């Protein structure tokens, strides 16, 4: 297959998958794309500071603070004073429910896309995706950013996350 065409097909598929993921997550959580990502990040990393949360969802500190204000107003997250001057953000029970709903809503259409592949094709596709994700990690260099909308529990259930492995490899296998 012509390399330029293959790259174009990858771009089209990537955009379509992004649209499915964002539509599922934002619709189920009734939040913005960055709000959905923030809630999913907080499910695995409670008590992150606003600045670090913003970095992981690619927002400036001021935009992240406004986003957290909105999540608090919606009853999905709350700020919690930590040690010293540190203030962390934590999900509320409603936020935890929203995360479950968002992950289900993003996962269902993705599973539907994979329905066109037989078992052998899925196995091959999984290997290829692992290689592509490792290459993307080399470009992006931040697993937290890359996996901000991931269902981390299913990713590591009986397997190694290819992005996490790429991060460990880049750090010298630590």
UniProtKB/TrEMBL annotation:
Give the SMART domains listed for this entry.
HTH_MARR (SM00347)
Can you provide one Gene Ontology molecular function annotated for this UniProt record?
DNA-binding transcription factor activity
HTH marR-type domain span: 3-134
Single GO BP term: response to stress
Xref: PROSITE patterns: HTH_MARR_2
- Tell me where on the tree of life, at the top rank, the source sits: Bacteria
- What name is this protein filed under? Winged helix-turn-helix transcriptional regulator
Which organism is this protein's natural source? Actinomadura soli
